[in-house]
Structures are given as structure tokens and as C-alpha cells.
Design a protein that fits this description.
Elements: H1 2-21, H2 24-38, E1 46-54, E2 57-66, E3 75-81, E4 87-94, E5 104-108, H3 109-123, H4 125-128, E6 131-133, E7 140-142, E8 146-155, E9 158-170, E10 176-182, H5 198-208, E11 211-217, E12 223-229, E13 235-238, E14 244-246, E15 270-272, H6 283-294, E16 302-310, E17 315-323, E18 326-333, E19 339-344, H7 356-375, E20 382-387, E21 393-403, E22 406-417, E23 424-430, H8 445-456, E24 458-466, E25 479-487, E26 494-496, E27 502-503, H9 527-535, H10 553-565, H11 571-580, H12 597-607, H13 611-614, H14 635-643, H15 660-672
Antiparallel strand pairs: 1-2, 2-3, 3-4, 4-10, 5-7, 6-8, 8-9, 9-10, 11-12, 12-26, 13-14, 13-25, 15-16, 16-17, 17-18, 18-19, 19-23, 20-21, 21-22, 22-23, 24-25, 26-27
Helix pairs in contact: 9-15, 10-11, 10-12, 10-15, 12-14
């Protein structure tokens, strides 16, 4: 153990010497070591290096690039090396394009993990033994994407989520295209000896942190009741004492890594309004109202004024002000004259920090002047701290809307107050009319706890806790590691109070099973194809797939377009594009109509660009035993589909209706067939 420490110290001294003197020969020796690890192609002959400094220390940035030469493709490789000579970043970009980028990769996620593990052992041996890949259900990506494999640091077989490595594996050529390492040289990780059993830790969590039921907007113009974890990402159960451990961290790279944090007040969507309807105040009246609200003495200079509206039918003036070089913007309802939004640039100040209570009183007085009735329909403020523009932090106060005695997590009043000057920096009020579901027939809190503990996971983990009350630690020196119990990071921490299932804050159900979205495909002959296409994001997650229903023309065109062109336009844009690409001829549109197999093949072959070849006047031979049943003008399409491996077997069955499962098989064959296959002519 001593020899390892000594070697690390010597390495640190060596690299500090390199940086201190920045000798060309020293950087060259570092570059040579890195080059051997990364297998730099021989045609990457253009080399550059530079030194830089960040909060972790001094770094060397290296790059190699070169043009295409012979069989070697051109490209660029970049690497960053830390003070101990460890590679903490790598990127390889190869020039040129390739055909078939929409195809499914030749490797699946599990194979990508193995490639990533080998890369880490070779390139980052200092980190590799402490890194474990996060479990993800196996799936197949498409050639134009990367497999993003995330590794988490483990010490004493306990995860430390703030240290990790992300390895991107190119789905096309199966090489590592990028690496990013986040690592802190921490000496002490408390050993998990004498910790509370997990059952006891769960009870302490219920007693000391807990969950709450509240209303949430589900982004479909309706509201759901959800249970959510209080203070997610900040408060944990100490693994030894069972008390609450508050990290005292509000932002930065030492903050928790959850898929969602506790929601804050959302601001209703605005869009530009060309003109105001009759009966609303004119701009000059709105400007006067703003001056009165701000209690401005004399003429307050206005820098701009614009009109906006929201989806609720409300109209607003947005008035910009410029006072002594400081910009601010205020939004006022054009009908009620209510102040609905305010933003002021933060000014640098060396004044002392005001107390949280004083700042809360300032926020409350501002809210009362802006919207007294709404303020009186809110709960008392929840107090938080947010990052300041000039370092340190400011105060944030959230006054949640009170609906039937419960918080509505998308409505209310949000106010930021400068911790140095006591000025209001931001005010936002969102208040929408919705139907709120009853608390009747919701699951119990006990059932919600069971779902969270089971699906989100509740485990031992290490978390950083800020030293000396620094809210945004800059380095490992500013934090110490504690052993705690909490939910596995990367999971949503909400439970739908109606269905009892783990979900996101917009009520979207959570599933860590890629193939688990469809309840009606298990055991179906096309189950494999459907699951793979779901994992490739060609199909959308839902409760049922309906594999044996006839597919509509609109759905089929949407699926094949997403498969080949990689995105989904709306229906009218889709059909317009299909006409433009000559996939459809005039009179062939039938949105909700069923399609027969020979037409399904015709559409996909046209989309792939084989129309002219398929419609040559020469006679095609397919080898299908029922070729005579194919419409004469479509035999060429059938032959090309057979040659490309899109249609397999010895029977074509041209007049059969295409089911959703059959459509899935067609698309799967398109994505896995050889791009350059040739039909027999």
C-alpha cells in the first residue's frame, strides 16, 4: 500500500513539474504515453497540445488529426490528461459518411458494455477496477447513434454516484467514440460496518423525511395526484445513526443525480401576439401601471414593449426597462393589470448577506402587491438557495398554490431575492384553471412507500456533504463523504396515487424494461421484432400493441418513415412528404384504410429509392410460388424486396391485409437487410 502511495506522489510531482516548466520535451513524453494507449492512426500526423487550468488543477489537452490516406479514413482525436497522467477525456471523430446509417447496429447494448469495459482497462487502468456499469436492459441501437454506457464508482462495494465514467460506443463501427471521466481523489470512504439494516433505514426514512401527496400537471391539460419524495437529492438517512444527513449542497457537480428533482413552479407557455383584442388596456396604460407597481419616481425609461398570449386566452404586455444601466423586464396582464412576471439583472455587490427571514418578508410583500388574492391562496413559503451569478447563493421562495388543502406543484408564486442586497431578482406567478381530481379512491401512503422501495430501490450509497457550509463545493477538498441510505439515483421518485405505479412528475409511467410496455405481445411470433423496434425508438411505449389488428395506412407510413428517415412529422406533413418523394401517387391516400401486403412492399421500396428500378419494363423473376397473384406492375417491387431480404420465404401472399405485427417484421427486415442486396432480374 505504501509503494502505491509513494508512486502516486512521485507521479504528481513529475506532472506538476511538467506544468510548471511547460517544456516541449515533457509534453511530448506525455503525448507519447497517451498515443500508445489510444492507438492513434498513422495518418493522424497533425499534432497539437496546450495547457489549461480548471477547479481540479492543471490539465494537458492533446489532439491528433489527419486527412484520408489510402485505406485510412481521416479524422481527429482529442484527449485531456490530468496532473497524475490519467486520461479523463477522449473523443474520436472520423471524417466521411457511410450508407445505411438508419440500419440496426451489428452489436447490442451488452456487447457495447464489453467493448467499453476493455477500453477502460486499457486507457484508464487507474479507474477501471472501481467502475461498474449501471444495469440497463439489453437493446439494439441504430447505426447513426452511440451506445452510451455509464459506469459508476464503487468503493467497499457501495456506489458513489458523483464519480463516474461515460463511454460512447459507435453503433456503426463498434469503436469507442468518446470517454468522459468525473473523478475525485478521495482518501476516506467510511466502511459499511455496523450500519443499520435496510428495513430499519426505511422506517427512519418514513419518520424523518417521508413523502407527500400533491397535484401535478400531466402536460395533457389535466391534473394528477402523485406521491413524491420530500427533499430528494438533499436529505438522506445516515447509515450509522438513522438521523437525517443534509448535504447542504444546492448545485454543481457534487449535487445528486436523480432523473427528476422536486418540481418548481412552471411558467405557462407564451406565444407572440400580433395584436390585442378589443377591451384590453393600451400600451401606455400598461406602462403607467408598471411604474406605479415599481413605485418609480418620475419617468421610468422603457427600453421595449411586446405583446404575448397564453393557451388560456390571456394577453400580456412585456415591458423592458433600463435604469442606470440595469435591465429588467416585467409582464402585466393586459386585462386585469396583474403583475405576472418580473426579472431584474443581478448586480455585483459586496454588501453583507441579509437573513433568510428578512428575505422571505421582502418576497411576501412583493407578492402581496403583485397578486394579493393569489398570495392568500398559497401555502407558506418553502425556502431554498440557488446559485448566484457572481458566486455564492441567493434565496428562492416558493409559495405553492393551495388546492383542497394540497399543494399544486405547477401553480403558485416563485420569487428570488438577492442575498446581498435584498432586491427581488425574479418573480413568477402561474395560475391556471383546471379540474382537480378527488382524493377518494387513491392508494394509501403505505402502498406508495412499498412501490418506491421496490421499484426505485433503497440502498446504501456514498454522498458528498459540503464542508464549512459551502453551498456549491468546487472540489473534493470542500466536501466529505458520508455513508447513507437513499433511493437509487437515476430513478423517478413519484408514485401515481390512482394507479399505484412509479412514474415521472408528468404522470408518465416508469419502466426499466424496454420490452415491458406492451402487455399483449408475450408469446406472439413477432414479439422479438416488436421489442427490438421499441428499443430502437421506432415504436412508442404504450400499454398495448394490438399485434393482430390490421395496420392503417397512416400508421404504416409513419412507422416506415421513422425507420428510414429517423423522425416523425405530423400527419399532414407526412403525407405531403410522401407525395413529394413519390412514395404515394395521387388517389392512393387512405389514412385509416387497411393496406394489402403488395402495397406495403411498394411503399417501403419507393421510400428506399428503388422506384425507377422496380418499374422497369423488363420482366422480373421472384421465385415466389404465388408470383402470378401479384399485380403485374408490382412484381418488380416484390423482386427487389426479396433480393434485399425484406420479404423472406417462398410465398408472397400479395393480397393479404397487413397486420401491425407483419408491419413490424417488414421494418425489422429493412433495418437488418443488406443495403446493397440485388434482386434477381
Amino acid at each position: 500500500m505504501k509503494s502505491k502511495v509513494i508512486s502516486l506522489v512521485l507521479a504528481a510531482i513529475f506532472f506538476l513539474t511538467v506544468f510548471a516548466h511547460a517544456k516541449t520535451d515533457d509534453i511530448a513524453s506525455v503525448a507519447l504515453s497517451v498515443k500508445k494507449k489510444l492507438d492513434i492512426p498513422s495518418n493522424y500526423t497533425d499534432f497539437h497540445s496546450e495547457l489549461e487550468q480548471n477547479e481540479k488543477g492543471r490539465l494537458i489537452r492533446l489532439s491528433w488529426s489527419g486527412d484520408t490516406a489510402g485505406n485510412e479514413r481521416g479524422g481527429r482525436i482529442e484527449a485531456i490528461v490530468d496532473e497524475l497522467g490519467r486520461i479523463i477525456y477522449y473523443n474520436h471523430y472520423e471524417y466521411g459518411n457511410y450508407e445505411g446509417d438508419y440500419k440496426l447496429s451489428g452489436i447490442d447494448y451488452n456487447a457495447a458494455v464489453k467493448i467499453a469495459e476493455k477500453f477502460l482497462v486499457k486507457v484508464c487502468p487507474e479507474f477501471a477496477l472501481s467502475l461498474k456499469p449501471l444495469h440497463v436492459e439489453n437493446y439494439i441501437e441504430r447505426n447513426y447513434n452511440n451506445y452510451m454506457v455509464r459506469f459508476v464508482r464503487y468503493e467497499n462495494d457501495v456506489p458513489f454516484y458523483n464519480n463516474y465514467a461515460i463511454v460512447a460506443i459507435n453503433a456503426h463501427n463498434e469503436k469507442t467514440s468518446e470517454l468522459m471521466v468525473e473523478w475525485d481523489d478521495i482518501d476516506k470512504f467510511p466502511r459499511p460496518v455496523g450500519v443499520l439494516p435496510v428495513s430499519k433505514a426505511k422506517e427512519r426514512f418514513k419518520e424523518k423525511i417521508g413523502i407527500r401527496i400533491a397535484y401535478y400537471n400531466n402536460n395533457q391539460n389535466s391534473v394528477s395526484l402523485l406521491y413524491g419524495v420530500r427533499e430528494a437529492g438533499r436529505e438522506y438517512i445516515n447509515a450509522f445513526t438513522g438521523d437525517v444527513t443534509d448535504t447542504n449542497i444546492i448545485a454543481g457537480r457534487f449535487a445528486a443525480v436523480y432523473s427528476e428533482y422536486e418540481k418548481s413552479i412552471s411558467h405557462a407557455q407564451r406565444f407572440e401576439a400580433a395584436a390585442m383584442p378589443d377591451g384590453l388596456m393600451p400600451p401606455a396604460q400598461a406602462a403607467d401601471a408598471v411604474r406605479r407597481f415599481l413605485q418609480a419616481e418620475g419617468e421610468l425609461p422603457l427600453s421595449s414593449i411586446s405583446r404575448t398570449a397564453d393557451t388560456e386566452g390571456n394577453y400580456y404586455y412585456n415591458i423592458g426597462l433600463l435604469n442606470k444601466g440595469v435591465k429588467s423586464n416585467i409582464e402585466i396582464n393586459a386585462k386585469t393589470a396583474e403583475i405576472t412576471g418580473y426579472y431584474k439583472d443581478e448586480e455585483y455587490s459586496e454588501l453583507g448577506i441579509i437573513s433568510e427571514d428578512k428575505a422571505c418578508d421582502i418576497a411576501a410583500q412583493f407578492a402581496k402587491r403583485a397578486a394579493l388574492d393569489k398570495f392568500n391562496s398559497c401555502f407558506e413559503a418553502e425556502r431554498r438557495k440557488v446559485r448566484s451569478q457572481f458566486g455564492g447563493y441567493n434565496y428562492r421562495f416558493v409559495f405553492w398554490r393551495n388546492v383542497k388543502g394540497l399543494q399544486y406543484k405547477d401553480n403558485g408564486i416563485l420569487i428570488d431575492v438577492c442575498a446581498a442586497t435584498g432586491e427581488v431578482l425574479m418573480y413568477s406567478c402561474n395560475w391556471e384553471e383546471r379540474d382537480f381530481p378527488s382524493e377518494a379512491n387513491v392508494i394509501s401512503a403505505g402502498s406508495a412507500y412499498d412501490e418506491l422501495f421496490d421499484k426505485a430501490g433503497f440502498e446504501l450509497m456514498y454522498v458528498p456533504v459540503s464542508r464549512s457550509k459551502l453551498k456549491i463545493p468546487a472540489s473534493a477538498r470542500d466536501a466529505e463523504v458520508r455513508l447513507v441510505y437513499s433511493f437509487r439515483q437515476g430513478k423517478p421518485l413519484y408514485v401515481n396515487a390512482s394507479t399505484g405505479g412509479l412514474c415521472y412528475s408528468d404522470s408518465t409511467p416508469y419502466s426499466d424494461s424496454i420490452g415491458g410496455a406492451y402487455e399483449d405481445i408475450k408469446g406472439h411470433p413477432s414479439e422479438k421484432f416488436i421489442k427490438i423496434l421499441l428499443g430502437a425508438k421506432i415504436f412508442e411505449q404504450s400499454e398495448f400493441f394490438r399485434p393482430d389488428d390490421n395496420i392503417t395506412q397512416a400508421d404504416y407510413l409513419k412507422w416506415i418513415y421513422r425507420a428510414v428517415r429517423k423522425y416523425s412529422p405530423d400527419t399532414e406533413t407526412l403525407y405531403g412528404t410522401m407525395y413529394y418523394l413519390n412514395v404515394l401517387n395521387e388517389g392512393e391516400r387512405s389514412d385509416n384504410g387497411s393496406i394489402v401486403f403488395e402495397d406495403a412492399v411498394k411503399f417501403i421500396i419507393r421510400l428506399l429509392g428503388y422506384t425507377d428500378v422496380a418499374e422497369l419494363s423488363d420482366t422480373y423473376k421472384t421465385g415466389f410460388i404465388d408470383e402470378g397473384m401479384i399485380t403485374p406492375g408490382l412484381v418488380g417491387y416484390a423482386a427487389i424486396a426479396q433480393g434485399l431480404g425484406i420479404v423472406k420465404g417462398n410465398a408472397f401472399l400479395p393480397k393479404r391485409y397487413v397486420t401491425r405485427a407483419t408491419a413490424a417484421e417488414i421494418i425489422y427486415n429493412v433495418l437488418t437487410s443488406e443495403q446493397n442486396g440485388k434482386a434477381e432480374k
